[in-house]
């Protein structure tokens, strides 16, 4: 007798890879809702700490404002503690972690993974996607100025939209450089572990979601 096939809900230890602006956050929200698993975004955790002016927030801000990565020891500790919580037992979706090989090695010692989804968007599209991005202060939904036609409230929850401090041209340029140097090598890292699946992020968000869900249903 073979091992019984686990239910989908037991195979949802997911990492979302992809450049800044590829749409990781948007897709992570959809996946988390559909499978009822926690969405863990290190960027969101840092922004919350910055808003609340915690010691971690003070450290994180100095790096985030420059487009650099927050130090590994701080980041890994946060993720390790979060993944130890009960709601992560049956699955989770990590958005924005790991961002370099050191973090990926650390994650191997923290948990198993079922799949790593790389949302691919051509590099030349990323600057415009990020500098035109507006985010809802209530639910975190992302928009682009080209589709807002001057509106500045969220279509989902009605709260105000804002532009992230690090979505300015100079910081975005650094974030993209950091991505190519430090994070992109993770594609090969996870390919070698037979965990990588690539989806086309250069299409309508709903079409990306359909592709993502298709990959997850086939696991
Ligand atoms: P994000 O919201 O994922 O775009 O992250 C915003 C910023 O938070 C990044 O540009 C980094 O400065 C910091 N950050 C988020 N995740 C990580 C991570 N895994 N390691 C180091 N820094 C991170």
Plain-language structure description:
- With 219 residues, this protein is an alpha/beta fold.
- The protein has one domain (6-214): P-loop containing nucleotide triphosphate hydrolases (Rossmann fold, 3-Layer(aba) Sandwich), CATH 3.40.50.
- Helices cover 47% and strands 16% of the residues.
- A five-stranded parallel sheet has the order 2-3-1-4-8, with helices on both faces. The protein has a three-stranded antiparallel sheet with strand order 6-5-7.
- Helix 6 packs antiparallel against helix 8 (169-183).
- The radius of gyration is 17 Å and the shape is globular.
- The model is unreliable at 1-6 (pLDDT under 50).
- The chain binds adenosine monophosphate.
* Major sheet attributes: 5 strands, parallel
The CATH superfamily name is P-loop containing nucleotide triphosphate hydrolases
Hetero groups bound? adenosine monophosphate
Q: β content, as a range?
A: 15-25%
C-alpha-based Rg, rounded: 17 Å
Q: State the shape.
A: globular
Strand order of the largest sheet: 2-3-1-4-8
Number of strands: 8
Structural class category:
alpha/beta
Q: What portion of residues is helical?
A: 40-55%
CATH class wording: Alpha Beta
Number of domains: 1
Q: What series of H and E elements makes up the topology?
A: EHEHHHEHEHEEHEHHEH
How large is the count of helical segments? 10
What is the second-level CATH architecture? 3-Layer(aba) Sandwich
| CATH topology (fold) name | Rossmann fold
Q: Mean pLDDT score, rounded? A: 95
Give unreliable regions as ranges. 1-6
Euclidean distance between termini CA atoms:
20 Å
């Amino acid at each position: 007798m073979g091992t019984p096939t686990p239910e989908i809900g037991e195979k949802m230890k997911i990492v979302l890879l992809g450049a800044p602006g590829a749409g990781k956050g948007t897709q992570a929200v959809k996946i988390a809702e559909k499978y009822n698993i926690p969405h863990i975004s290190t960027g969101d955790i840092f922004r919350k700490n910055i808003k609340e002016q915690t010691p971690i927030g003070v450290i994180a801000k100095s790096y985030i404002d420059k487009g650099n990565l927050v130090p590994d020891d701080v980041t890994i500790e946060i993720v390790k503690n979060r993944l130890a919580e009960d709601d992560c037992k049956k699955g989770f979706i990590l958005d924005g972690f790991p961002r370099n090989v050191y973090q990926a090695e650390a994650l191997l010692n923290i948990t198993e993974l079922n799949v790593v989804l790389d949302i691919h968007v051509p590099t030349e599209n990323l600057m415009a996607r990020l500098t035109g991005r507006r985010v809802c202060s209530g639910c975190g939904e992302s928009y682009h100025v080209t589709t807002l036609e001057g509106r500045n409230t969220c279509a989902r929850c009605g709260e105000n939209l804002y532009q992230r401090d690090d979505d300015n041209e100079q910081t975005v340029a650094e974030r993209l450089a950091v991505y190519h140097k430090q994070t992109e090598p993770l594609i090969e890292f996870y390919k070698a572990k037979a965990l990588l699946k690539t989806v086309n992020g250069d299409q309508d968000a709903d079409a990306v979601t359909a592709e993502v869900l298709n990959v997850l249903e086939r696991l």
